[in-house]
Amino acid sequence: MKATTAAHALLAAGHNAHLDPALNMLATSDGDRDAALRYLGHLAERVAAAETGSQVAEVLTEIAAPANGLLPLTREVVARAALAARTLEGTAPSGEPDPIDRLLEITDSMSRAAQAILHARNHAARAPQKAPTPPPSTPQPRATRRP
User: Fold this and answer.
1) Could you give phi then psi for residue 32, rounded to 5 degrees?
2) Exposed end of the chain (fewer CB within 10 Å): N or C?
3) pTM higher than 0.70, yes or no?
4) Tell me, what DSSP letter sits at residue 93?
């Protein structure tokens, strides 16, 4: 229970916290899906609140990182689904477009999209950082001239 509480406190404070599902005392049958949806919502909030290019780059890295980014992992799931469907279904009747082939083409597009996102991430990371806004100055009273 302590691990669950700590992970949720870190998430609420805006930090990344990945808790092993075996340790999550609040897990439900749909817990993984709910956690994924919360994570995507958290990424959207982070990018909406970003004030620097490096903050945007951090989110783009989480989306497209080659080993564990969301898009490459999703691409892997789609590719495996296409291969599994091909094994179960066989080949499409001739003359008809094959939706499994189209699915495999989409995985190639997902790979290209991940590369484009990483390119954009690198560009965002090099963007000049936003200068901190100075606090508003207190107006000084005008000096009164006396003759």
Assistant:
1) -65, -45
2) C
3) no
4) P
Report how far residue 61's alpha carbon sits from residue 122's, in angstroms, rounded to the nearest whole number.
Answer: 9
3-class secondary structure, 25: coil
Please determine, for residue 110, whether its predicted confidence score (pLDDT) is greater than 70.
yes
The C-alpha torsion from 59 through 64 and 67 to 73, rounded to 10°, is: 110
Give the tokens for residue 144: 């009164």
Vertex 18: Cα angle to 4 and 27 (nearest 5): 45
- Three-state DSSP state, 80: helix
24: Cα separation from own chain's centroid: 22
Query: Amino acid letter at 53?
Result: G
Instruction: Identify the band that residue 1 occupies on the pLDDT scale cut at 50, 70 and 90.
Output: very low
pLDDT averaged over every residue in the chain = 80
DSSP state, 127? S
Token pair in block for residue 26: 């609040």
> Distances in Å between the alpha carbon of 74 and those of 101, 138, 143?
17, 53, 67
- Whether 101 and 108 have beta carbons less than 8 Å apart is answered as no
d(CA 58, CA 125): 8
Q: Residue 119 has which token pair?
A: 């390119």
